[in-house]
Every structure is written in structure tokens, then in C-alpha cells.
Write a structure and sequence with these properties.
With 144 residues, the protein is α+β, with helices and mostly antiparallel strands. It has 6 helices and 5 strands. Its main location: cytoplasm.
């Protein structure tokens, strides 16, 4: 599944005129292999041994390109660092207020919220985002 997602992302980027460098490929690979919602620093630290000349700025610049092409979503949740989410399907985020862990979940009924919002307000809806905050099971265990 991860290889298929990686291949689709590479093909999409190439089709839109983005040149695939080894660094870009490595960043995409990192994002598609289960590393959910990393910061640019997380990605940099994970890849710096493979690319000693790569800087954090290089990671940020590539993530910006991926965001502009719709491959990743940049998430800002009030802390200092943006987190990046590889875009696969529409989903929502559960965020632990204790440790900052972010878990994806899907609730298809919420897909109708855009239609309802447009109907009730007359707006043309472009997108929506939902975050639910709480305490993850690990943090709950640490409190007890």
C-alpha cells in the first residue's frame, strides 16, 4: 500500500512538472511509510544520515512544493512546529492534549457538513477541517 501511494505521488508530481530529486523521493517515502504527522525537523533528523548535505530548509522547501501540489497538508495546532500529513483520503484528526499525538479517523457522515453549510449560508464551500482534542490512552495510563 505504501509503495503504491509513493508511486502515485511521484507520478502526480512528475505530471505537474516537478523534478524528482533523491531528497524529494526520500521525503515522500518517509511520509508514506507510517510516520504520521511529522514535523519538518522530524523528517530532517530521520533522513540526515542519508543526505548529509541536506538542510532543514531543504525539507521545508520540498514540503511546501508538496503542499502546493496537494500531496501533503500542513497542519498548525498552536505549537511552534507545523506537522505534515500525507493526503490519502478525507479524514479528521484526534489530538492528545498531553503528548501532542495525532491520530487519523474517518467519519463519513461528516462529509455532508459542506453541503449543509453551503445550503444554510449561501457560501461556496472550498474545504473543511475537524480536530477533536482529548487524552490518548498512553497519557491516561500515566495519570493513574
Amino acid at each position: 500500500m505504501a509503495n503504491e501511494m509513493l508511486d502515485d505521488a511521484v507520478r502526480s508530481l512528475r505530471d505537474s512538472g516537478v523534478r524528482m530529486t533523491p531528497q524529494r523521493h526520500a521525503i515522500l517515502e518517509y511520509l508514506t511509510t507510517g510516520h504520521t504527522h511529522p514535523t519538518a525537523d522530524d523528517i530532517y533528523r530521520a533522513l540526515e544520515h542519508r543526505f548529509p548535505n541536506m538542510s532543514v530548509a531543504t525539507v521545508y522547501n520540498n514540503l511546501r512544493v508538496f503542499r502546493e501540489k496537494g500531496i501533503v497538508e500542513e497542519m498548525n495546532y498552536g505549537d511552534a512546529s507545523s506537522r505534515f500529513d500525507f493526503v490519502t483520503t478525507r479524514h479528521y484528526h484526534m489530538i492528545c492534549e498531553g503528548c501532542g499525538k495525532i491520530v487519523d479517523f474517518n467519519y463519513p457522515v461528516l462529509d455532508d457538513v459542506e453541503t449543509v453549510a453551503a445550503h444554510l449560508t449561501g457560501f461556496k464551500v472550498d474545504r473543511h477541517r475537524l480536530e477533536v482534542y482529548g487524552t490518548c490512552p498512553e497519557c491516561q495510563s500515566n495519570v493513574q
